[in-house]
Amino acid sequence: MNEEELIETWNQQRAQIIKAQMQPVLVLIATFVLSALGYFDKASDEAKYFALVVVAVTGVLTTINQYAAIREGEAVCDDLAKVAKKSALATKIASSRSFVSATAALIVILDIAVFVVAYLAIFGM
Questions:
Q1: How far apart are the first and last CA of the chain?
Q2: How many helices (H) and strands (E) does the chain have?
Q3: Of 7, 16, 4, nearest to 93 (Cα)?
Q4: pTM of the predicted model, to two decimals?
Q5: Is residue 112 classed exposed, middle or buried when 0-12, 13-18 and 19+ CB atoms within 10 A define those classes?
């Protein structure tokens, strides 16, 4: 692949990560609204567990998508680093591999934090 194709792929991977966050955000908004309005206070344990499972499954599937995009983004960084005469943009993208890798770890940490907070919101503890 040439530099232009690699940069296009980079932009596609970034857009995929951003788009992958939309569904879980909507699920979390719905969970927040239901919790804020006190609907979980009246709900059965089964309904609460179902809501928690929906939050968890949505988060896990999104994380899998994000990891795929991150791996591909890392590969683009590696390939751009090998291009002989790079533009300034290609140089910046190639040097951002460590940030892309750090994003993978951050996603896991934030996923755990969001799941804990969702649990507390649903079960009211």
A1: 53
A2: 6, 0
A3: 7
A4: 0.79
A5: exposed
Give Cα 69 to chain centroid, integer Å: 10
Say if residues 107 and 66 touch (Cβ distance below 8 Å). yes
For residue 51 the two structure tokens come to 């809501």
- The domain made up of 3-123 has a fold known as Topoisomerase I; Chain A, domain 4 (1.10.132)
CA 22 to chain centre: 9
**What are the tens digits of pLDDT across the range 22-81?**
888 999 999 999 999 999 999 999 999 999 999 999 999 988 988 888 898 899 999 999
Domain ranges of the chain: 3-123
